[in-house]
Prior knowledge:
Chain A is mainly alpha-helical. In chain A, 64% of the residues lie in helices and 4% in strands.
Amino acid sequence: MSxxxxxxxxxxxxxxGNSGDALPPVGEHAxxxxxxxxxxxxxxxEDYVELIGDLLQHRGEARAADIATRMGVSQATVSKMIRxxxxxxxxxxxxxxxxxxxxxxxxxxxxxxxxxDIVLHFLRALGVDDHTARIDAEGMEHHVSNDxxxxxxxxxxxxxxx
Amino acid sequence: MSxxxxxxxxxxxxxxGNSGDALPPVGEHAxxxxxxxxxxxxxxxEDYVELIGDLLQHRGEARAADIATRMGVSQATVSKMIRxxxxxxxxxxxxxxxxxxxxxxxxxxxxxxxxxDIVLHFLRALGVDDHTARIDAEGMEHHVSNDxxxxxxxxxxxxxxx
DNA sequence: TATCATTGTTAGCCATGGCTAAACTATTTG
DNA sequence: CAAATAGTTTAGCCATGGCTAACAATGATA
Lengths: 162, 162
């Protein structure tokens, strides 16, 4: 046994005392981890799509070599990944040609970019220096819910320079 | 070619206009992604260690079955993972017995817990509801730098109920 | 045009982190 | 104490996301 109590007492949170918030109820706890695992499955995909969108926008084309350099991985890895993106219907690609995003890919790129921007601007508004903000935003963006994102946006608006 | 310009112009940021922050310089961009990849390698480990620490503290013991239930994965997965934690010198375990953390494991558990708590309390202080805050914190905690963490802590202090 | 550097692809390797099924140990209970 | 149940481990499968090395296509340039 040992875990079939359902931890009924998670009430007294919200204290900052940093001490021991009780363990969340089992089911909820499991769902938290599951959410993170799911995010991991999509986040690389989103990163690629977002980067491809950025390259298309800022450079007019997205070549595998550029992606490899910017992501810091080998071309082989990128090539493999592009096949997956293709199968997922996110990009179209003729061999040895620049990539393009499908409609769905574009939607994903926009969404990702928007999330990314909000998180980045939020961190800067919070007082985080630009360099750190960029790094943290890259990691955080896939784990921020829409609710939190909305709150971040509000925070940015309130703290924006006039 | 196509990417050997080093994007010298990232200066004009900080505007919230949400439009197109130019691409970061290649090297820096690659380092951002690398940081995220590295974080991914450690984050599962940290989650396990943190959870084991929590179970030890709140339950007095950490059994594989509990971990499996709370993480929402199979016991086999946990068993395999425990072997890794063992090899990494983070836990000690005699077969078919409860786990314990090594000194190093305890240090990691404490650090992880502290990060987690700061992120969680920060989100709540920001106005995110408890349930969402828990989920987001679980995903975010591994991607928040010490600098940002310090700023979050300051924010919490400033917004704490008296 | 022939050559060569750049770029892209393929094949095949590895580690990680899931899973199920089966085997084994420990504990509880009849 | 034997049998049943609960918990743990092992074996072996799969997908993902890295890598290197070898090969193929493209496109510039001599």
